[in-house]
Amino acid sequence: MTIWLLHLMHKLHNVWLVLTFVMKITGQAHL
Fold first, then answer.
1. Concatenated DSSP letters of 1-31
2. Cα 6 to Cα 15: distance, rounded to the nearest angstrom
3. Mean pLDDT of the residues in the chain
């Protein structure tokens, strides 16, 4: 259960990194 939770947290962290990266790219594109 702990390993599964850790895996889920890692996935969410990767999604967050991708989201912030896309936001940064779109932000620069709008400027």
1. -HHHHHHHHHHHHHHHHHHHHHHHHHHHHH-
2. 14
3. 91
* CA angle 21–24–20, rounded 5-degree value: 40
Radius of gyration of the chain (CA): 14
Query: Is residue 28 very low, low, confident or very high in pLDDT (cuts 50, 70, 90)?
Result: confident
Side-chain-side CA neighbours of 2 within 13 Å: the count stands at 0
Rounded distance between C-alpha atoms, residue 2 and residue 19, angstroms: 26
